[in-house]
Amino acid sequence: MEHGIYNHIPDDGREFVVTNVNAVKIRAEDGRSIQNLNIDSFISNLPFDQDTTTFSTTNASGSTSQAANILEALEVGASTLLLDEDTLATNFMIRDIRMKALIAKDNEPITPFVEHVRSLYEKRGISTVLVMGGSGDYFSFADVVIGMIEYGPHDLTAEAHQIVKDDSVLKNFNVAPPSEIQRIPIPNILNASKGKRQVDIKIEDLLYMRFGEHKVQVGAVEQLVHPSQLRAIGYAIHYAGRYMDGKRSIKEICQLVLADIREKGLDCLSERGIRGDFAEFRSYELAATLNRFRALRVEQRS
């Protein structure tokens, strides 16, 4: 499904898989940096009175990084979240009744995603597709439940809803969705030059980008499928410098860059003219790469 955002070639297995172009794959990403992000709806009550409305770190935990990945995707307009339990932080996804009985809410910094999933849809129009086999906590909120039995999909919605029909605890969640806060990059910080080269951008498969003196880890941006996309994104970030004026948000900057590409083609990103080694990308992967620069600095705008 995460690759259903792309056109497919015949017989590659995606004949009947079409995904909303605004769907974004979400995962935990231990160790990534986060810059001035309001994660308060998901993470609060941190030790030492850390402010989670303007949260920054150079070494995010699994739960904190997953919260950031969701919020950054929503920041640039994602309408569908794709999640797979194999790459998620369990403590961010669920918190069962026994754990709630042991640890009081006031002592628990994480508001799990299960408490947000329904309000995200009802109040923000954000859909969630979740692969989960280890917990039934999401049954109460799911519109559709599909079970994979011997590799075949079966509609188990009625059975799942029957199981939780008397489960009043989970049905009573009424958490406000995350606030819509835009962030504005501070200009003239991300410099693509290195030594005598005005623009030095190199790609290492789909794992790293070298942008001047910066090394950016992008292996967890899972909807990138070709190095030419990442190369184009590197040059797009350099190109975006003309729009980073201390007033425009990340979303607005991404929109302007993509508008130029639609009008002029991908080669407008490079001063060399026709290159032949760029590939199309979305605003979500452009923003995701930008957000992974450890040198990035931003200000918030409500």
Explain what the structure shows.
By secondary structure, the protein is α+β, with helices and mostly antiparallel strands. It has two domains: 23-166, no CATH class; 183-300, no CATH class. It has nine helices and twelve strands. Helix 7 crosses helix 9 (283-291). The mean pLDDT is 93. The protein starts with 22 loop residues before the first strand and ends with a strand. It has a three-stranded parallel sheet with strand order 1-4-5, with helices on one face.
Structural class: alpha+beta
Q: Provide the helix percentage.
A: 25-40%
Low-confidence residue ranges:
none
Distance separating the two termini: 33 Å
Which sequence of SSEs, written as H and E, runs from N to C?
EEEHEHHHEEEHHEEEEHHHE
Radius of gyration: 21 Å
By DSSP (H or I, 4+ residues per run), the number of helices equals: 9
Dominant shape = globular
* Biggest sheet features: 3 strands, parallel
- Estimate the strand proportion: 15-25%
Main traits of this protein?
9 helices, 302 residues, 2 domains, three-stranded antiparallel sheet, three-stranded parallel sheet, 12 strands, Putative ATPase of the ABC class, ABC_ATPase_C, MRB1590-like_C, globular, alpha+beta
List the helices and strands and how they pair.
Layout: E1 23-26, E2 34-37, E3 55-57, H1 62-75, E4 80-84, H2 90-93, H3 97-102, H4 117-124, E5 127-131, E6 146-149, E7 152-155, H5 157-163, H6 168-171, E8 182-185, E9 201-204, E10 208-211, E11 214-217, H7 227-239, H8 250-264, H9 283-291, E12 298-301
Parallel strand pairs: 1-4, 4-5
Antiparallel strand pairs: 2-3, 6-7, 8-12, 9-10, 10-11
